[in-house]
Structure formats: C-alpha cells, structure tokens
Sequence to fold (349 residues):
Amino acid sequence: MTPSRSKLHATARPGRVRRAVTLGLLLGGLTLGAVAAAQAAQTQAAPAQTAVTSATTTPAANTTLRPALSGERRFLTLPGFGRVAYYADPRGEGRPLILTVSVNAAASAYEMKPLWDAFAGKRPVYVLEWPGFGSSDRPDVKYTSALMTGALTALVAEVGRDVDVVALSLGSEFAARAALQEPRIRTLALISPSGLGQPRGGTQRAAEEDGGQTLYNRLNAVSTPLYALLRTRISIEYFLSRSFRGPVDQDLVNYSMDTTRQPGAKYAPVYFISGQLFTADAYGDLYSRLQIPTLVLYDQDAFVSFDRLPQFTAQPGVRAERIGGTDGLPHFEKTSEVVEALGAFWAAP
Fold:
C-alpha cells in the first residue's frame, strides 16, 4: 500500500513532470489524511496571522454550493484573504466542539458529517472549512499553513470560549500549530494525522530549495486539465476507496463532485501538492511541543504512517487508540467507536 517514492526534481522534463504530477494528484487526491511526504519541502512557517473576525450569514461568492451539513452556514472575514465558511449549531451544553476537515482536491465540511450528526444538539458544534475549500472563498492567492492556522484561531476567537478541537489528516498540523498559539484550545483529537511518520508518496515531495515554489509554478501551468481529470466521478471514487475498508460512502462522493466544481476550486489544492501546506518536521516543530491533552485515532492509512506515534504517546497527556478495520476515515466506518473514544477522552481527568 506504500506509494512510489520517486521524486519531482526541478530539472525534470515537462512530460515527466506532467506524469508525476498526475500521479501525485491521484495519490493525494481526497484523503489528505495526509501526504506526509510533502513535509520535507515545507520550510518553517511564519506565525499564523491574527484575524479580525465577524460572523455573518451573508453569502460568499460560491455559496451556490449546497450546504454540507444541517445547522447554520456562517462566515468569518480574514484580512487579506476574504471569507472563510463554518457551520454552527450552538445548541447543547458543555464546552464547544470545533471540527476541522482535511486538505485535498475536494475537502469540505461533509468529511466531518458523521461526527457533526453525533454531537449536534448535544453540545455546541462548529465545523471549519479551510480557506480555498468548501463554501469558503477560493481566490487565486498564496495558500500557507499560516493562513490555515489563522482561520482556526479566528474561529476560536469568534466562539469566545474554551474549545475542544477534532482535526482530520493534514488539518491536524494546523490544529496543533493553533493550539500552541491559542490557550482557549483545551484539548486536541487528531484523526489519521499527518506528520507522525516517515515521508510516503514521494511524488508529492517538493524537492526544490525554494520550498516548493518552482514546483508550484509548474503545477499551476497544467493545473486546469489535471484538475478536470481529478474531479471526475471515477477518479473521486477511486481516491475515496483508498480511505474506506468497505463500500465508499456515495453521499460523500456526490458532495465531493459538487465542491470540486466551484469557481477557483483548483487553487488551494495546487499549493497542497507542491508541499507548501506541510510542516517539514511536524513532530519536532508542533506535536512534541503540545502541552494539552491530545488523542490520536488511527489504524491503516494509504497516505501516511505513524512511525513516531510511540514517541508522541510517551509525552504527558498524549494517548492513542486504534480504530481497527479502517483506512483513514474511521469516523465514517466505525462512527460509534470513534464517538465512544472521544467521549472517554474528554471525560478523563
């Protein structure tokens, strides 16, 4: 199940680049649960920008996209970027829960629907859609880990209370970075997180010394036809099949097709493939520095490994639970087990 470890080099011939990029898109496609290989290309990210937040129900440019979840679709404004979407159901009691999605060609709040359905109405729940994905604005700008982290800290500020955060795949790196900056994040639960293993899927490693900018420029030059291939139903079902042990959730496939057809849908994924959204050493720079209770939920994953998980769980307050029989999206196939594990984690002293 380990993807090829071939690399894209700055000197690669255009034909080879196109073939390798296509394979990179296929490998990283939908589970962004994490193509940890691209971590090697990411230089140390700057601190997340401070965002002035304001909740509004005014539609963003691409809210022709049908809602991914029940509840209210709201927007935050990030200075210098635009609006970032999140779903809110403030009913219920207890500490608010923020769910964050993965990063891939078709990321959206629908990726967290099983957990939304499990907790909405029981405790306040919010689901963040990263800049460039879902109903968030998708301008042609530079997408960075600092931008993503800033979106999460903006939502925490909007909620205005201590929160628990559950993050999926590469979103785990953004959540960990946010937790190091925002004391109102009291716990983290990371589902199939990137950044805990050795690089895999080498076709997505940006080898350039400029941190992936040259690779981004090449990817961007051919991104429109490649993205058109990626968003076909047969491609989406193939990508998702690598994250489901059993049948692929067809409602997730349908929503993935919808979100990939929004204006500007290609821009953020190109930055992802070029490696610029990853942290070079996520464990050393992020996870090892956490000082809040943290839970890792995992089993098999076609795109990441967990070689450093024992080192991580040796830290005070960090625990891991294997959700057997799953492949990167355990909350879809073993929802009750994931919910039970989260409940036990939050109830622990």
